[in-house]
Amino acid sequence: MKQEVFFQDLGMRSYKEVWDMQEELLKENVAVKSYARSQEPAGSIAVEASDIPTKNYLLFVEHPPVYTLGKSGHKENVLMNETELKENSIDFFHINRGGDITFHGPQQLVGYPILDLAKFKTDLGWYLRSLEEVIILTMAEYGLKGDRSKGETGVWMDPGIKGKERKICAMGIKCSRWITMHGFAFNVNPDLSYFNHIIPCGIPDKQVTSLERELGRKVDMDEVKERVKMNFE
Predict the structure, then answer these.
(1) Which end of the chain is more exposed for a tag (fewer CB within 10 A), N or C?
(2) For the whole model, what pTM was predicted?
(3) What range does the domain containing 53 cover?
């Protein structure tokens, strides 16, 4: 059964503002679930997930320059100290998603799905592979072959060719009571030099790339957004 997903393009917003927004949407959905379960009479059959009025969202956003470190990430993968971060106007947040260090900045499409997976499929592996597939399908529309790298989340190019592996889309999520938050960061036309100051995703000796670098031209962000949105749907 198809599910309704509320879509919003937030434009350029600070990382903290949108992190707070995601937390609030997740919290609202968890509260709805908890209330529905609390109303079940003792010994009754559990309420069907489809009958619980949680709401699904897909947020698109671009952030001013920011490094974010996942909950199990290593601070030493940030190659700048606090003074250097301030001098270069780069924010830094240690956050509650999976994964290690990544960069967000202008001309990178960041997508935050807040979904109740109980209405889709309660399988985080399936969910992450599905997010990867959205990006792989979008890349194919530009004549590029996106791929998966064994044991590493996200979308890559040439993951099996030593020295040529390059990541084009990073992913990291949090899930609580099967409600998701955080998501993917798809490099469209970002300034890739920001990645020189971190060990992206904590994986040394692998490159980062973008649609712009692979195609040799700037790509229209609105066009990419529309294609990602359609493939997500």
Answers:
(1) N
(2) 0.91
(3) 5-232
- The total domain count for the chain is 1
CATH number at residue 196: 3.30.930.10
SS3 for the chain is: CCCCEEEEEEEECCHHHHHHHHHHHHHHHHHHHHHHHHCCCCCCCCCCHHHCCCCEEEEEEECCCEEEECCCCCHHHECCCHHHHHHCCCEEEECCCCCCEEEECCCEEEEEEECEHHHCCCCHHHHHHHHHHHHHHHHHCCCCCCEEECCEEEEEECCCCCCCCEEEEEEEEEEECCEEEEEEEEECCCCHHHHHHECHHHCCCCEECCHHHHHCCCCCHHHHHHHHHHHHC
Reading the block at residue 87, the tokens are 């001098």
Tell me phi and psi for residue 148, to 5 degrees.
-105, 150
Work out whether strand 108-114 and strand 101-104 pair parallel, antiparallel, or are unpaired.
Answer: unpaired
Question: 9-18, 90-99, 126-135, 216-225: which has the minimum mean pLDDT?
Answer: 90-99
Cα(23)–Cα(21) distance, integer angstroms: 5
pLDDT band at 45 (very low <50, low <70, confident <90, very high): low
Which residues participate in catalysis according to the annotation? 201
Handedness of CA 155, 175, 228, 22 (dihedral sign): negative
Tokens 């020295």 sit on residue: 163
Tell me how far apart the alpha carbons of residues 78 and 67 are, in angstroms, rounded to a whole number: 8
Count of CB atoms within 10 A of residue 113's CB?
A: 22
